[in-house]
Amino acid sequence: MGKGKVYLIGAGPGDPDLLTIKAAKCIKRADVIVYDRLVNSRILDYAADEAEMVYVGKKPGFHCMPQAEINRILVKKSMEEKTVARIKGGDPFVFGRGGEEAEELVKNNVEFEIVPGITSAVAAPAYAGIPVTHRDYSSSFHVVTGHEARDGSGVSIDYEALARIQGTLVFLMGIGNIRLICNNLMKHGKNPHTPAAVVENGSGFNQKTVTGTLEDIHKKVLDSGINPPSVTVIGNVVKLGKKLSWFPRGPLKGRRILVTRSRGQSKELVEKIEGLGGEAVVFPVIKITRPDSFSKFDIVLNEIRLYKWLVFTSANGVEAFFSRMKDTGMDLRLLSKINICAVGAATKGEVLKHGILCDFVRQSHTGKELLADFLKIVAPGEKVLLARSDIAGNNLPESLKKAGIEFTELKAYKTVGQKPSNTGDIINMLNNGKLDYITFTSSSTVKNFVKSIGKGNIGRTRDLKVVCIGRAACETAVSEGFAGAVPADEHTIDSLLDLIVKIEKGGI
Q1: Active-site residue among 3, 58, 253, 272?
Q2: Euclidean distance between CA atoms 237 and 221, whole angstroms
Q3: Are residues 408 and 431 both part of a single domain?
Q4: pTM of the prediction?
Q5: Rg, the chain, Cα only
Q6: Is the CA virtual torsion 307, 308, 312, 313 positive or negative?
Q7: Does 173 qualify as catalytic in the annotation?
Q8: Domain boundary at 370, 388, 417, which?
Q9: CA-to-CA distance for 259 and 246, rounded, in angstroms?
């Protein structure tokens, strides 16, 4: 039987932008993804759509899957001639049990590679403004496990030696034992007034830092409600934290925002949310696909010279139209005598990507207002081509028909509802108040979100703020039970984010 290959990958401390380029490449080409609890869900977006996902996460005090079983899965999948991406939070060789997994692979003659990641031992303090070394404060740093093996195996922590060290001490996974750690260090001579800090969710949008001294940090942690995953830093470098603090920042810091549009379209919104200090949770309830058949599409393209107006009501329609022209080998110069109408700034921008300027741009997405403009600019006898989604509404076509405007409706792409793989996680977030905003960019995202989580869970969203692109999406949201839904002023991502920032500032 042949063997595949296993990549033992460090995913970094939490911020998906800290993933290495090599790690992203390995994840993209993997047949199987084996991942831990602390792996940011956005990192999994690098995986191929057909990749098998295997969750082996562990929580403090509860192991979803024993280490021996994880080892068995890695060997088994590789024996099936598959490429396996074993993704761990932080670095696989820094208290990640990556060494144990590598030993098992060697034992079974399985080819593997280690892909290092940024360890939270350095990243979490850095995101809290604490350098683990500094010429004036510390010339060394030491990374220590926050808990020893429960069965007594492994190497015991030498607190006597640690207490003598003048460098920085960094304890990982030690939040449950922080009082014991501090007491042991003081017992062996460490100054009780030594500065100490605990960083929760280091590099995450909801990062939280508590500072104190060796003798009182455990109480401050308890009072602040600090939870795992957390990193404890002990040493004089902690003094720099307040001065060098830089993260998180932005008007949306500490806010978690649900993005419901298709995965392929979510990138811009996700990046801008993160740029404003928030966390975007991608929950793609729709998928944009090609039409089931291109027979009508190709007939229309072959007769494109017959049309005077080409109308795009979405960026998806633009991408689908020009993609088919390219696939069929058609020359863009065939459009030279056709007027292009785009509805919305995003649609206009997508047309411009193809080197074409729009002849007319309408900001409103309502058929009534678009028709009013058309009656002014479309001459009698001029044919209009509408390139839209298969689920686009009938108001515009019916209005054009009543007005006597000759048109052809082209279903340029399909909008397909889907139930995302992280639906259970989203419902848990709703149940536990872990979401602050839900964004809807179309009526289809509203309807398919409701289908995904179930109508019975809509009541759990009453404390969330619901913001929409377009009045149509907002009206659909209200009709589906999101009574407080608010529309953005314009049909753009920037307008949507401006609305959220305005809400945060109390402007609404």
Answers
A1: 58
A2: 19
A3: no
A4: 0.82
A5: 28
A6: negative
A7: yes
A8: 417
A9: 26
User: Does residue 58 have an active-site annotation?
Assistant: yes
Q: Strands (DSSP E) along 247-395, which ranges?
A: 256-259, 279-282, 286-289, 309-312, 339-343, 360-362, 384-389
Catalytic residue among 15, 77, 88, 173: 173
Which residue in the list 15, 36, 91, 436 is annotated as catalytic? Answer: 36
Average pLDDT in the chain: 92
Q: Which residue range is the domain that position 218 belongs to?
A: 122-244
> Is residue 65 annotated as a catalytic residue, yes or no?
no
Tell the residue number behind the tokens 């033992």, with chain if given: 8
Comparing CA positions, the residue from 75, 76, 84 lying closest to residue 105 is 75
Closest of 279, 280, 273, 104 to residue 204, by C-alpha: 279
Q: Which helix (H) or strand (E) holds 96?
A: none
Give domain status of residue 54, yes or no: yes
Tell me the percentage of the chain whose pLDDT exceeds 70: 95
Cα separation, 234 vs 209, whole angstroms: 13
| Sequence-distant contacts of 396-405: CB under 8 A, at least 24 apart | 396/313, 396/367, 396/370, 396/371, 399/367, 399/368, 399/371, 400/371, 400/374, 403/371, 403/374, 403/375, 404/380, 405/374, 405/375, 405/378
List pLDDT tens digits, range 225-263. 999 999 999 999 999 999 999 998 899 999 999 999 998
Amino acid at 145: T
